[in-house]
Amino acid sequence: MSAALIIIDTQVGALTGQWAMPDGDALIAACQSAVAHARAKGWTVIWVQHHEPGGAMDGAGFAIDPRLEPAADEARVLKVEADAFSNAALGQLLSGYDRILLAGLQSDCCVQATALGGQRRGFPVTLVADAHHTWSRQDLTAAAVRDRVTRELREAGIPLTTLVEVLA
User: Fold this and answer.
1) Pairing mode, if any, of strands 99-105 and 44-50?
2) 27: CB partners within 8 A, 6+ apart
3) What is the largest CA-CA distance in the chain?
4) pLDDT tens for residues 96-147?
């Protein structure tokens, strides 16, 4: 079976400073575990980076969080829309894969849009349910928003897994 792990938007601009995500350290730890496992298994690891000119994901904020240490031979895909599959390069990189795991930021934006975009395009995407996160929204905590997105994706037919299941 060929598998790929996509880490979405785990960039400095979302994890530090005034925009620092709540529980960002826990998300980084989950992504570190998933990446280490993927590398040990010989899976493809792809890093998606959102480019937001003049925003938090620009300049120094554009870099992937250094705690994740992307390898030089791992692909990076840039995007300017929420759905990472809007960049045709991602689909080309993932052609023929049996399983594509998604983790990262922002649950209620780029993670959700990428999961649904991959599904629409026929890719076998699976959400790592405890390896994505977001910010609070109106009267919901960040955890409640994340859990709502996970439920909505499951209801839309996106398979779910957990980090423990991935690492088994």
Assistant:
1) unpaired
2) 10, 15, 21, 104, 105, 131, 132, 133
3) 42
4) 999 999 999 999 999 999 999 999 999 999 999 999 999 998 899 999 999 9
CA-closest candidate to residue 4, choices 70, 96, 101? 101
Predicted model pTM:
0.95
Please report, as a single letter, which amino acid is at residue 105: L
Going by the DSSP 8-state scheme, the letter that residue 140 receives in this structure is B
Pick the closest to residue 149 from 93, 97, 104 (CA basis). 104
Asked whether the beta carbons of 87 and 114 are under 8 A apart, the reply is no
Q: Which two tokens stand for residue 71?
A: 């390898």
Rounded distance, CA 154 to CA 49, Å?
A: 25
Cα atoms in the 13 Å half-sphere on the side-chain side of 85: 20
Reply yes or no: is the peptide bond before residue 11 cis, omega within 30 of 0: no
Tell me, what amino acid is at 11? Q
Residue 23 has phi, psi (to 5 degrees) of 60, 25
Q: What pairing do the DSSP bridges indicate for beta strands 125-133 and 160-161? A: parallel
Q: What is the helix (H) or strand (E) element at residue 76, kind and residue range?
A: strand 75-79
